[in-house]
Amino acid sequence: MAGNPVRVRTGGLRELGFAIEKLSRKTQTTIARSALAAGGRVFAKEMRQRVPVLDEATAQRNPGTVKKNIRVRVLRPVKAGEMQAVIGIRSLTGKQLKSWRKSSGQKGAANPDDPFYWYFVEFGTNKMAAQPFVRPSFDTKKEEAAARTKEQLKTRIEQEAGK
Q1: Angle, to 10 degrees, between the axis of helix 14-21 and the axis of helix 25-50?
Q2: Cα 113 from Cα 124, distance rounded (Å)
């Protein structure tokens, strides 16, 4: 999942912040991870709808490879109180690529299940025009994702407070 990170800061969470501080650290982390993942899923869903898909398979590409590998990952906190979610395209692991090379005798780039080329689709090349799907997804869904994150925070805090 490469590229420059885009950060979204949401205001108006003061009351939720006070409520979450009353909970244990483990519960706070669980609630925050859940809320970030919910917001990230909004972006991922939009990206899946916008990503260009091949009409038919070729020797080196299967239709929908990039679409199938769009993922939301919530990272472990680096500092207390700061959490991050990464929405991006998961690439194949070294083990998967090594297995492919061993079984087929071809280079890893020839693997039809490797979505490494998403970057070329998003930004274009000197032989191909860009077909952006990541940035437009972010631009159209950032408010909805922030609202979904706040909604999930509120719901989970209320659930925990009721226990």
Answers
A1: 140
A2: 20
